[in-house]
Amino acid sequence: MTIVSPSYIKQKARQLKKEKSLSQHQAYDEAARYFGFHNYKHYLNVLEDKQKQAASTKETLLKNIYSEKDISTKERFAISFIQDFKISIGELLDILKQFQDSAAAIQSVCEKSNLKDVVQTFLLNDFHTEEGSSELQNLPFNQYFIAKEISVKNLQYSLENDVLYIDGDYDLKLEFECEIPEEYKDLPHFYREPMFGDFEIKIDEDAKLTIMNSSIGEKIGDRIYAEIFR
Fold it and tell me: Are 127 and 163 in contact (CB under 8 A)?
């Protein structure tokens, strides 16, 4: 039997309560039956069993990671774990500590994790801060633009003293921040190629992300404008 999220049950119950003028109890029973359960109590029992089973499986996989001696097998266990369960950055760092002596395993495990998405979100949010936007606007004509979308690539991961370091490159798309003067719209500067740069980020044992250094640049016509900051 496929379990569904409690939010789906709740949403369906609201719909049925309104459509059929049911009591809340009746609506939840009807919603549970809609998804294949006998009633709402049956749904809750199945949900609890599934959660216990998942917790047990998670605990077993963690034990396998920590106890396994063969590095290749340990790596497979770790990748399986991070792909099967939603884990925090702190939990990921704890797992990576099991591979202190294998740079290749750290790279492999990190590539299979959600760190790329975490880094992209962090960098984009940083460009929206006062400090980040001021750095962006130091380049020609950028006072009219804000960061819209960022993609990172060529990520390299290393673990030193329980701190994860991430080096990589990025491309940054811009969008207009506000209305610009009409006479500027035909200038070639406003048909922008994505900006680009590189960065180094560290994630400490408290799962805090910090930009260690970064650069930013862009190509306008045949000229490349670039600067290094932080």
Answer: no
1-15, 43-57, 87-101, 160-174: least confidently modelled range: 43-57
Question: What region does 204 belong to: left with phi over 0, alpha with psi -120 to 50, or beta?
Answer: beta
Residue 76's Cβ-side half-sphere holds a number of Cα atoms within 13 Å equal to 5
The answer, yes or no, to whether residue 137 has pLDDT greater than 80, is no
Within 13 Å and on the Cβ side, how many CA atoms surround 171?
8
pLDDT tens figures, 27-69 = 999 999 999 999 999 999 888 888 777 766 778 888 888 898 9
Average pLDDT score over residue span 112-139: 84
